[in-house]
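#struct-help
A.M.: can someone run this one for me? Single chain, 414 residues.
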Amino acid sequence: MDSKLFPEGVQRCSFGKFAVWMLFITAFFLWGLYAAVLVLYNGIGTTGLDNYFGFGLWITFDLAVIALGAGAFFTGFLKYILKIKQLEKIINLTVIVGFICYSGAMLVLTLDIGQPGRAWFGYWHPNVHSMLTEVIFCITCYCTVLIIEYIPLILEQKQLNKIPFIHALAHNFHVNMALFAGIGTFLSTFHQGSLGGMYGVLIGRPYAFRDGFFIWPWTFFLFVISAVASGPVFTVLVCTLMEKLTGKKLVEYKVKALMGKIAGTMLCVYMVFKILDTYAWATGYLPSVGLTFDQMFYGVAYGKWMLFTEIILCGVVPAIMLIVPSIRNRPALLYTAAILDCIGVTINRYVFTVQTIAFPAMPFDKWVVYYPNWVEWASSIMIVAYGFIVLSLSYRYLPVFPQEVKLNYGKADA
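D.P.: on it. Structure tokens below:
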């Protein structure tokens, strides 16, 4: 019944199947929305956060999706600035994934801010001494850039594109897309870095504090590199999941392998500096303040196994897998490396957010384990469901994959 809205030349599943799928996803969204309303109505006290843990699951989730959404600005930079033509077949998906990640992060911050009615304070009364001020402005501006990059895809919807003005407008957007890609690269690089720099300057939190280069702690640069090392393969995983759900081939494997090669190269660079940073922190900074490496870890929630998993299992291992052609060119191994890579950057954001705070920095402190409650989990799942909704609607009605017809020759969805 909605076939006239489909992109030119493609086939989609019946409206009934699509409606059932959307109802399934919407149920999770509504559950999370209920939790979000409770937070907005009753306050942060509804969650597992307290005076000790001001940051928790939400900020971990926020930093993780922002890092994984880095595929948008980095792929855009490679496609429009460095002119890597092969990426044009996946660039639309990276924009959508980036838009979902960043808009989802903004929704999470709305909940985490405590009093959303004062959200404008950060813009009108900025604290010029805080890296969070730069994050506020850059993440808002970059989210705006992603909206601008998403608009031409909407304007190319088959029925809308028949209107001459909209057709011309979409064309002009594409002509100037390199400009937006450049602006997006600049904005995203700085806010990714400032998110890491925010932790690196916390001199009272020895787990996160780092020396650095001029005013920037090493975590500033590590957050940027880890984001560009994971974002491209996250897009590959999203594309592969879409292929499994639709039963169609949407992107040639060689494009996925190229994304894996790019991410693997950046991951190798990141792991070199991450290992050097960890070694210098453990043998240089910690002894200088009277602490030992063993004191930074406690129990299972904050154990050394987390550091080993992040650096070795989800760092060195996928880096090797992604840069070795014989491994990268095998789909199962590429996807495994991609999953490990994404898990690694998520663990990194978790330990910097939660373990940093949990460490007993004062003599009267003790290790405290943080437990997010169902409200935090439900509202986080709401963002995931929101992503599925946007992705599903975009795939069904917008020309996300222009090469789809050529790859499938009219094959219908499963």
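A.M.: thanks! The chain has a mean pLDDT of 90.
D.P.: also worth noting: The CA atoms of residues 47 and 193 lie 28 Å apart.
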